Each structure stands twice: as C-alpha cells, then as structure tokens.
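The authors assume throughout that readers already know how a fold can be written as discrete tokens. A single example would do more here than another paragraph of explanation. An entry of this sort, consisting of the sequence and the corresponding backbone structure tokens, reads as follows:
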Amino acid sequence: MPNYEEQHEIVRRIEALFALADAIEKRVADATRRVEKITQAILAKAFSGELVATEAELARQEGRTFEPASALLGRIKTQRALAAPAQKSRAPKRAKPQPAAKTPAPASGATGVVPQRTPATAKPFADQVTGGIPRQILDSMKPDVSYSRADLLAATGITETDWLWAVKQLKQSAQVTQTGDRRGARYSLSIATKSNLVEISKPAIHNRHAGNDMFNKAALCAYIVKSCHDPRYPLGRVKLAKLFYLAQHKADIHLTKSFEKLAAGPLDVGIFKVLNLAQKQGWLVLEEAIGKLKPVSPGKKIDEALPQAEKILGDSKSRVDEMLSFMKKLGWKALERWATVLEAALELIQLNRPVNVSTVKEVLINNEKWRAKLDREEFADNHIRDTISGLKNHGFLQ
C-alpha cells in the first residue's frame, strides 16, 4: 500500500483527469451544436444564392456587361416573331377511324367464349405431372357408403389443397354426390359411377403400387431408417424427410403426389403422420428430442415392413441402397440443399432451361419461402455447384 501522501496525490490527479474529461466532453458537445448550426446556415445561404457571388456581381467586378434573364427572354421572343412568316393556322387532320377487327364466329356447337390459358403453376397442371388424385379418391370409396371429408383424407393421405381441387372435379363430372352443408358434408359414389367407374381427369401416375399409400410410405420410411441407422451418423426426423424425398426421385416412384415447397425445402406435408403410423406398427421408434435433434430408430417389428418396401422399390432397390449408403453420412442441412437444388433443377428441366448455379438461384429467388436460403453458407455458389455435380454423378440429373 502506498503511503498517505502518495494516495492523496493519486486521488488529486484522478480528479484532475475527470475534470479534464468533463471539459473535453463539454467542448465536443458545444462544437457539435455549432456544426449543426453552421450546416443549416450554409444550406440556407446556398439556396438563397448568398453562398457565392452572382453572375451580375462578377460582371460588375470584371467590368463587363451583364444581360439578365428577363432581357434575354424578351430578345428571343422578338427574334422569333420577326423570323416566323405569317401563316394561316390549319387544324390538324383527324385520323380516319380504323374498322374494328372482326372476331371469328365460334365453330358449330361452341359457346363463343374464348378459353383462358391456365398458368403453368396452376393446380391442374401440377396434377398432370403428379397423377390422378380424383382416381385415388374414387378407388378409396365403396358403393352405398357415405364418407366424410376426414374419412377420405385419412384413406388417401392427400393434402387439403389436393382435396379441394379433386372433389370439385368429381362433383362437376357427376361421379360423386355431396349431401349436407360444407361442414357436415358427406360424399358418396353417384349412380353412374357405381356401374362404371371411369377415369375422369388425368392420366394415372406411373409406378403406382397396390395398398394404402400411408402404409407404403411408412414402409419406405422404415426401409430408409433400417439402411441408415448408424450411431456415427445421427438420423433425425428432418433428415429422414429429406431422404424420403430423394429416395422417391431416385427410384422414380410417386407415393407422394406433390411435395410442398416449404421454407425447409420440398416436403411431404403428411410425413409426420406417416412416421406416427410406422411407430404404431412397431416399425420405428420416435425418440425424445436431444436438443434440436429428434432421433428416429428402428422398431422391434421393422423387419415386417421391409418386404413391402422392397416391393415398392422394385428394380431400383440397388440404386436406392447406393444412394442411402452415401447420403446417410450427410447432415440434414446438406440434405436440405440436395433436395432443394433437385426440386429447382426439375422445375428448370420442365421449362427446357439449363441447370446451373445462376438458374437454380433464380428459382430460389422467385420462391418467397426459398429466397432466404441464399443468405446461408450452405447455399453459397460453390456448394450449389457441387450439389448439381453430385446430383448428376448419382443419376438424379442427366
């Protein structure tokens, strides 16, 4: 400890420094206020013409004549009046009205209404690609039985959006009748449909498989978990959902009619219901969350699901096995990029456009839910480029 005199001197110097700091702070505040006033004064002088000498003042200082703008304007008007010959004003000719284009008469039997083109993103166009959803609803219905909307959604596993479109088509084509109001509506096959079930809308999808799609999806999920279960590479529900998407494309099967383009990438919105079904069957175990990871592990009866899954995959089983062997080592963020880039690439191919980093980024930018992905490191240009190359090497793209 310093002696009393040194302590006293230290305190004195600290107080002096604090006083100096206060004085400096006050001077800075005063200077800031003066700068603000000076800035306002300079702008006021600039807008009022007082900041620099005017042209008239400069002319007087230099001993030369100065012509004000009013005098110049008057001289120009006088010169124009003298130079312009007197002419009789003539009204401009009116344009001869063109006859209206004749609208071709509608063909015999036509209504004369011009059909509107459906945008490429409209739901009917999507179903031409993904299959006959109305057919699926009809196949799940039996004669002389009425169903609620919940019954048919559970039996088919389709999304709410697909349901609204498909049931409208079925009612318009008189294949299904509705009784009751919207909330308590019941649906049953019409008399004509009972005698002759016909395909009403779009070509059925290829590679359809017998049995309930929910069970087929559950079997495929069980197969993926069985193939990818490895303590070194944690498998959570999000990662499984991405592998479920990629496996269907790899095998060229269409258990999912349409994958929704959500913020996390393309997703079967019913996947978590499928996982719950697989757990009830004893095929999977949905474990408690560990932080952000929600692990999925094989159930005691998982082997019961494998024959159905192998039947679904058919000749593509070996290709899917090879894909899963590689992709089980990737994290869910990398798989999100693979699935998103693949979905963007398929959209570009459908539009006959090249697949490269620029065009993939264009698809992401045009999708409001995907736009933010480009701010993430996983979607940097080099990662998108490597993913496109990987998709080609693994046979997803040509």
Summary: Confidence is low (pLDDT under 50) at residues 100-131, 195-211. Strands lie at 176-179, 186-189, 260-262, 265-267, 284-286, 296-298. The two ends are 81 Å apart (CA to CA).
